[in-house]
Structure formats: C-alpha cells, structure tokens
Amino acid sequence: MKRYKTIVGHMLFWLSVPFTISFFVWVFFFKNITQIKTQSISYLNMFMDKSNILSNFIIVVIGAFGFYSVYFVIAPKVLQKAKATEISLLTFALFIGTFFFLYSLSFFFPEIDWLSYYVAYPILLFFSAIGALFRIWEYGRIKERENAALERKTLETQLNLLKTQINPHFLFNTINNIDVLIDSNPKIASDYLRKLGDLLRFMLYRVNEEDMIPLTDEIEYLEKYIALQRIRSVNPNFVNFKVAGNPDSVTIVPMIFIVFVENAFKHAGDKKKDNAIEIKMDITGTKLSFKSRNTIKKNRVDKDGGIGLTSVKQRLDLIYGGKHQLDIQSDKDYFETLLQIELL
User: Fold this and answer.
1) Strand order in 287-295's β-sheet?
2) Angle formed by the axes of helices 258-267 and 306-320, to 10°?
3) Which residues pair with 335 in a beta bridge?
4) Separation CA 198–CA 14 (nearest Å)
5) How far apart are alpha carbons 235 and 272 in whole angstroms?
6) Sign of CA dihedral 180, 183, 185, 190
7) pLDDT in tens for each of the 344 residues of the chain?
8) Which end of the chain, N or C, is less packed with Cβ atoms under 10 Å?
9) How far lies 269's CA from each of 264, 306, 307, 323, 339, in Å?
10) Three-state SS string across the chain, please?
11) Within 13 A of 284's CA, how many CA atoms are on the CB side?
12) Contact 159, 255 (CB under 8 A)
C-alpha cells in the first residue's frame, strides 16, 4: 500500500509540472509584455499551444530523467563512497543521454534548435539537484531508524547483561541465611524468602515488559535488596537508605541504581559501623538526585566497579544523553557516587 501511494504521488507530481510552468509563463506574459496585455489570451489556450506542449514534454522527460538517474544511481554511489571515476562516468552519461534525447527529438520537431539545449541543461541540473536532496533526506531517515534500532538493541543487550550480573555470593549467602532462619524464626525466614522471590521476579519478568517503570517500583526493588543484605550483618544499621520528595508520578528506566547499590555493599569497609553505607534519593520537580556513599575496604581493587558500572554508564548515555550527570569520587576512606537525572 505504501509503495502504491509513493508511485501515485510521483505521477501526480510530474503531471503537475506542465500546468505549473505554463501558469507562471502565462502570468509572466501578462505582466511584462505590453502588446499581450491588450489581448485576451486564456491560460488554457496558452497551455494547449503546440510549442508549449512540446516544451512541457521536454521539461518533464528531462526533469524525470535527471531526478531518477540521480536518485536511483548517482546519489547512492556517492553515499556509498564509490570511486570518483565511476561517479564521473555516470554524471557524464546523464549529460550525454540528455543531448541524444534532444538530438533524436529534433528529427521529428525541427523547431528544436541549439537554444533548446541551453534551456534543457539548467532543467536537468535543477531536477537532478532535487533528486539528490530527496535521496540524501531519505538516506538520513533510514540511518536514523537504523541507529534507533541499534540503540534499542544495545540497551536490551546491556540490560540483559546487567541482569546476569547479580552477585552469586549474594544469592548463596542469602539462601544460607534464610535456611538458618527457618528453624529459629520461620515467619521472618518466609518474609525474606518472599523478598528474594520478588527480587528475582522483578529482574526476570517486570524489566522486560516496560522501557520505563514507576520510580516507586524501583525504590521497592532497592528496599528489598537492602533488606536481604541486612540479614547478612550483625548490625542492620550499617546501611541507611532515605527517599526525599514524592516519587509517585515519576517514571524511570529500570535497574539504573542497583549497580551503585551493589558496589556500595561489595566495597564497603567495616559493616559493624553505623551508616557505613548511606544511600539517598531526592526528587525535586523534574530532577532526581541519587547519592550513594560507603566506607572503603583496605587494599580495595576494582575501583570502577567492573562490567556493571560500565554497562549502566552506557545505558545512561543512550537513554538520557545530556540530561544526566554522573560524578564518581573516592579517597582513602570513602567512595561516593552522585547521579543527577532530568526526568523525561
């Protein structure tokens, strides 16, 4: 259906060219040639004049020849960076083809003289330029769609990679801790087991369903992750998580913050100390600020957080572009991440 509409559109355009040119010629005559002003020459009479019909025919044929030669042959070669000699030969063939067309036509219409050639080539150049511009514009649109598809594919790959980055030690230790709690406190063990199930369900299913999710769901995901981390420590106050502002009407790309939270737990120093890890999220108007700060283990390595942090940086660049700012700082005592996002 789309191809049919394109063909009809092109046909209507070329059919309109003779009528449009004849109209402007008719207007020009009435405005600039005195002796014609006193005569009553209708637009239809001028359009049906034999010489005018021939001129319009030549314009349409040469214009279409130039437009489609450039659109289908020459412009694609240029965009594909073909050899200069090949492009030059094709351009030369375009001009030679126009010459032979007029030369052959002159046998049937002797009124075609040398002046016709001087008029024909500007027409050829004009419609060839339109063909080139149209092809470049279309090429840009195709590339834009391809880039958008590639970016989306990259995002999906990065997200899938991120989902596989869940620390196996975290899972192993959490399951062991829940197993211990089953005997001593089955109710709490069941609650933690449900939290772990919700965590895995969120990563495996919910994240695939939507490109953007409510910020409240992301916060709930972080809270469950932190709760499961707390049962691994004798001091549940070693982590402090606060949310300021109203997240109810805010949407966010899923699993943006978890990498920073995981890194904070992974590299935190003395977890017997209160507030060894501090995580804060602040929503103000259309801006979201996320901050994580943790003490640092001695002889710590993997300063940049490995594949997970690299992945989330790429996702932020692709999705939010210049509407986000990520600042990571560290010294001998603390590691701090500050992410600011202008909400979409």
Assistant:
1) 239-244, 277-284, 287-295, 334-342, 324-330
2) 160
3) 294, 330
4) 63
5) 6
6) positive
7) 667 777 887 788 888 887 777 776 666 666 555 444 444 456 666 666 666 777 788 888 888 999 999 999 999 888 888 888 888 898 999 989 888 888 888 877 776 765 567 778 888 999 999 999 999 998 888 888 887 777 666 666 655 555 555 556 667 777 887 877 888 888 888 888 888 888 878 877 766 655 788 999 999 999 998 988 888 777 888 899 999 999 998 998 888 898 899 888 888 877 778 888 999 999 998 899 999 999 887 665 454 445 567 778 877 887 888 899 999 998 888 899 999 999 87
8) N
9) 9, 18, 21, 33, 22
10) CHHHHHHHHHHHHHHHHHHHHHHHHHHHHHHHCHHHHCCCCCHHHHHCCHHHHHHHHHHHHHHHHHHHHHHHHHHHHHHCCCCHHHHHHHHHHHHHHHHHHHHHHCCCCCCCCHHHHHHHHHHHHHHHHHHHHHHHHHHHHHHHHHHHHHHHHHHHHHHHHHHCCCCHHHHHHHHHHHHHHHHHCHHHHHHHHHHHHHHHHHHHHHHHHCCCEEHHHHHHHHHHHHHHHHCCCCCHHHEEEEEECCCCCCEECCCCCHHHHHHHHHHCCCCCCCCCEEEEEEEECCEEEEEEEEECCCCCCCCCCHHHHHHHHHHHHHHHHHHEEEEEEECCCEEEEEEEEECC
11) 6
12) yes
Query: What are 11's two structure tokens?
Result: 């046909």
d(CA 241, CA 341): 19
